[in-house]
User: Fold this.
Amino acid sequence: MEEALYLGLGKTVLAEEALSQVRDNSVVAISGFNMAMAPELLIEELYRLYLKTGHPRNLFIISDTFPGVPGRGLDKIAQDMYKKGEEDFIEGMLLPFYGWSPTLQRMVIEEWFEAYTLTIGIMAYWFREVGSGRPGVLTRVGINTFLDPRQDGCALNEKARKSRRVTGRILEIDGKEYILYMAPKPEVGLLRGSTADEKGNVSIEDEGIQGTILNIAQAVKARPKRGLNIVQVMRVARFGNLRAKNVAVPGPLVDYVVVAPREKHWQGATMDIDRRVSGEIIVPLSQSLAEPLPLDHRKIIARRVILEMADLIIREGRPIVVNLGVGIPSLVAHVAVEEDVGEFLEITIESGPWGGVPLVGPDFGLAISPYAMLSIPDQFTIYEGGILDAASLGFLQVDRHGNVNSSILPDRLPGPGGFSVIAAGSPHLYFAGGFTAGKRSVYGEDGKLVIRRDGSIKKFVSRVYKIVYNPAAASEYQRQEVVYITERAVFRLDHGGLSLTEVAPDIDIEKDIIAKMEFEPRISPRLGEMDPRIFREKRMNIKVDIVKALRS
Assistant:
């Protein structure tokens, strides 16, 4: 038995045995980008143990993103807590994204627990920094936005503002302001991998992303207080069967291994396992990989974005590295496949994949046939450092100064996700979203835009509810080209304000644009018409334009 324990055989246990080691008042870090790398079994069993025994209680939950989707993972727990009135399980949360859980957002607003947020890249860096024994993350991301401690800081509700368990501190270096973000060191890590061997070494060959599991494990084990790491896997192998380069977390950092049933270890929200998503099989990027999109306002916007990117390809004279955000921007990848211009766009998504066709909806974060995958902190180094060429991100509100609110309203607190880092770092920034919100019927037909029913909610407002992107602060770091793209109008940031530069064919500027805004934009003296190809069913054939320009 002593030899078996030395080899680590004793690390493989049932979930309850491992989770019984979690103490009341612990800071628990959970991996997961939606369902990718989310330890669904461990999340559910931890809550089940609390319901059974009353312990562990008063937990402070931290994640690199959000471990779940509607009805699964953290959202499933939140729904049950809310229904049963179980207020003692969670004392606080620090999540970059609450958007997949309307129940959690309601609990934040109703002050069930302290609620904080940081953007994904900063959160991922934070685990790495804490694992290195440093106090937190030092960055310019967040200056003069709602994350700035002189504004809301990281707090999402009054309990958080009073407790200040997660904070930011303004520091000045060489005349420039930075924020030092600090939060409690995790004491428990709930992680996920594919295979563990008898010594607890963990590989991730079946997963769709690398995630942040190594950095979370490092943060948990860092001194002065070494914590507890529990890893959910699909299988256990004999020691020596895992290639050293495939080990994502070395065994000495792992305390317990729990084997999950297949239904609690899906690769994504809607799939058990797809070898194209795990990167084991790379298939040609054919049109069959991208589902046909109706020519509604979303596809029109995605087409206009890709025209902007095509222009950048021509200007740079080479393929470009781009990031695509959630929502309408993610559809740009489908349009790229449809137009057969994938060879000119190196598409990345914030969870780590490069290339392929990004998936949408609750499977966002995964991609079909990526050719490379980085960890989340390494991916965000690409973004914050401006190593990429361009990004397309969604928006909820835009004001006359070009400030953007990506997601936050009084009754809606999804958090910034990865938006803040990507927006601050991208040298060419293409915001993409519907001109209005609400029920609408807007589509393209015969080279024109048809507005059969317009949305009732204005998105171009006098003042955004929360500033998540501040172009004035970003410009102090680097020069950016900033474009705001909708289905009927294109605006550019010019001299500190918005300038209308393009309108859809046959659109009435006064009636369909200015009357639907809370401010009047500057009208460019070179006001033009959006390309009519955008509003026709057939392909735009932009590859011809790109190839011709690059050969000349």
In short: Residues 1-7 have pLDDT under 50 and may be disordered.
